Amino acid sequence: MNVTSKSERSADYKGYLGFFAWAAFYFAARGLLELDTLGWWTRFAVAIVPVPVFAWVLWNVSKGIAQMDELQRRIQLEALAFAFPLTVLLLMTLGLLELAIGLNPADWSYRHVWPFVFLFYFAGLARAKRRYE
Amino acid sequence: MRNRLKVLRAERDWSQAQLADAVSVSRQTINAIETGKYDPSLPLALKIGRLFNQPVEAIFFLDDGASPNPTGAHHVG
Q1: Which one of A85, A100, A126, B29 is most buried, by most CB atoms within 10 A?
Q2: CB pair distance less than 8 Å for A74 and B29
Q3: Which of B16, B26, B32 sits opposite A8 (nearest CB)?
Q4: A53 to A48, A62, A96, A101, B69: CA distances (angstroms)
């Protein structure tokens, strides 16, 4: 049974919109940088552009959390409690594998690892929401 | 923990949304409390008690097989 209200769905919609806006900036920046045709300072600026966009997303997220009730905050906490150790496990394992067998940076650099953090968070969020529905 | 929230709400013909608005939480929270999947915090339980004009222990009770105490009165000895 869907028990979220219209205002809650509206807040979710804005949150997802902000996230996708940041994702668009990020992948546009990444696409430009992979062209390898830009000067050093331009490349630096392009790499930094997604940062204020993400900061804006985080500001909206913190506003959203401040408006959440106690169960919604508990769900967020359980999602983060699920995602954080998995993230640590991933980074630790990749670090050891890098020492043990050497990892190709083209396949396992920072830009390949961060999506897993979001994956773990959304998995944790789905798990926590299901628990209370 | 168990509760009589659904019964009390039905007696007043309130929807979950109406009850949620009255105690300033989401409908998801009211649903989770009624289905026993979430135990409210003390402030929320007190708000609910005040709304229904009943003591907290007349609405929420431990899941140990004991019956709820509608008056909330304690009997010692």
Answers
A1: B29
A2: no
A3: B26
A4: 10, 14, 33, 37, 55
Distance, CA of A41 to CA of A44 (rounded, Å)? 5
For residues A124 and A89, what is the distance between their CA atoms, to the nearest angstrom? 15
B55-71 as b/e, with b when 16 or more CB fall inside 10 Å?
bbbbbbbeeeeeebeee
Residue A18: pLDDT band (50, 70, 90) is: confident
A70 CB neighbours in chain B (<8 A) are: 25, 29, 40-41, 44
Check CB contact of A69 with chain B, cutoff 8 Å.
yes
Residue burial A28-48, b: 16+ Cβ < 10 Å; e: rest? ebeebbeeeeeeeeebeebee
Beta-carbon contacts of B28 under 8 Å, excluding residues fewer than 6 positions away, are A3, A4, A8, A71, A72, A132, A133
Place of tokens 């915090």: B41
pLDDT of residue A2: 46
Residue B52 and residue A28 in contact, taking contact as beta carbons nearer than 8 Å: no
- How far B76 CA sits from the closest chain A CA (Å)? 34
**Mean pLDDT, chain A, as a whole number?**
89
Q: What is the pTM of this model?
A: 0.81
